[in-house]
Write a structure and sequence with these properties.
alpha/beta; Rossmann fold; Arc Repressor Mutant, subunit A; nine-stranded mixed beta sheet; 17 helices
């Protein structure tokens, strides 16, 4: 899709786009096609002028036009722009320097514009951002993982994006803020509306330290469909989406699938197989989703070449440092009791002279002890060389 020209100097395009955010619901692809073909000023003229002008729009029906005209008649873009400015915000349009061009990947479903609050640059922040989403009624495990992942991403210079909802969203925002990092909230209502109300303080902190944005004009309320449609913006805005706890029917999975369709990474944090809140994540992971457990693994996927997660290995045990022959001699000794050198050699399949040499090496390393002409494992230590738990 070709990027549109910058808004006209006289502000008519900006006013028209602001008005259209009250006419069309987010993600209305039919409206997006009309907007692309006619331009915002002409589209508003057809919707508010004579009915015959709007009928020239492909797919326009009388019933559809009546609904659009009713909304258009109540649009007051000058007031909306003044209201968002009074709240310390702005309206960002396609073609503006601050517009994140990755949203153009949504085609005709891209936002008409974004209402934004916060001092930071939206385009620059979105260039290095990751979405963390998940269940509203999350478990303590889910909240812990969301906060930990967000803090880890923030410490590595990534912007954490979520939806400011209860549960995983809130934990992700708080984790990023606690680490002194950057976070953005994409709302399903007007950016001057604190929703949910219980997150009014959190949203205020995000405005002060990050960015709050949405497609809906000031004072607009959220609906179920608007929450779902909001998720496509989260997916398109970021380099990848991480789902932390989600049931089979979850808006978070919609975000992940949108990310996959757009060529972004879709990641999931595993949980207990017995938890319904992990069932949706596990289904994602059984498909094309990528399993992640910490911020380093996320950065390895969405970051630049060289952003590699550390190798995952178990602890190195003293026995791991033995050569093959010494390990065979050590295995030839019984768990309890002792053996003579010849018996050890026979069990190990090694000559008596070599066995004796290996036993003295093992003795110096603390694995075995000598009792006269017999040998045994050192009391209080396992065959791996670690101190035995719970005594000898």
């Amino acid at each position: 899709m070709t990027a549109p020209p910058a808004p006209a100097d006289d502000g008519r395009e900006r006013l028209a786009r602001a008005a259209l955010t009250r006419v069309f619901e987010p993600g209305d692809e039919r409206g997006g096609r009309w907007l692309r073909e006619a331009g915002p000023v002409e589209l508003m003229r057809r919707l508010t002028g004579a009915e015959g002008a709007a009928r020239t729009l492909k797919g326009m029906t009388a019933a559809r036009l009546a609904g659009y005209r009713l909304r258009a008649s109540g649009a007051d873009p000058v007031r909306d722009l003044a209201d968002v400015a009074a709240a310390g915000g702005r309206f960002v349009c396609p073609g503006d320097r601050e517009w994140p061009s990755q949203l153009d990947d949504l085609g005709d479903a891209r936002p008409i514009g974004l209402w934004v609050r916060g001092r930071s640059d939206l385009r620059l922040w979105a260039l290095r951002s990751v979405a963390l989403v998940g269940a509203r009624a999350c478990t303590p495990y889910g909240a812990h993982m969301a906060a930990t992942l967000a803090a880890g991403l923030a410490e590595r210079g990534w912007v954490v994006v979520s939806g400011a909802a209860f549960g995983v969203d809130g934990a992700a925002h708080r984790g990023a803020l606690a680490a002194g990092g950057a976070t953005m909230a994409v709302l399903a209502c007007g950016v001057d509306v604190a929703y949910p109300r219980g997150h009014a303080e959190l949203i205020g902190r995000i405005v002060e330290q990050g960015l709050v944005m949405g497609e809906l004009p000031p004072s607009e309320h959220p609906t179920r469909s608007r929450f779902i449609l909001r998720n496509r913006v989260i997916a398109a805005l970021t380099r990848g989406t991480v789902v932390v706890e989600a049931e089979y029917r979850s808006g978070s999975l919609v975000t992940a699938r949108n990310a996959q369709r757009l060529g972004r990474f879709a990641m999931g944090v595993p949980g207990p197989a017995t938890s319904g809140l992990s069932a949706g994540v596990h289904e994602l992971l059984r498909g094309e989703g990528v399993l992640v457990t910490d911020a380093a693994e996320i950065c390895e996927l969405v970051g630049e070449i060289g952003d590699l997660a550390p190798a995952r290995t178990g602890p190195v045990l003293p026995r791991d440092l033995l050569d093959a022959a010494s390990a065979r001699v050590l295995d030839a000794l019984p768990g309890t009791g002792s053996l003579g050198g010849r018996d050890v050699a026979r069990n190990a399949g090694v000559s008596t002279d070599e066995t004796l040499g290996r036993l003295y090496e093992l003795h110096s390393l603390g694995f075995v002890e000598r009792e006269g002409d017999r040998w045994r494992l050192t009391p209080g230590r396992t065959r791996d060389g670690d101190a035995r738990r719970g005594g000898t």
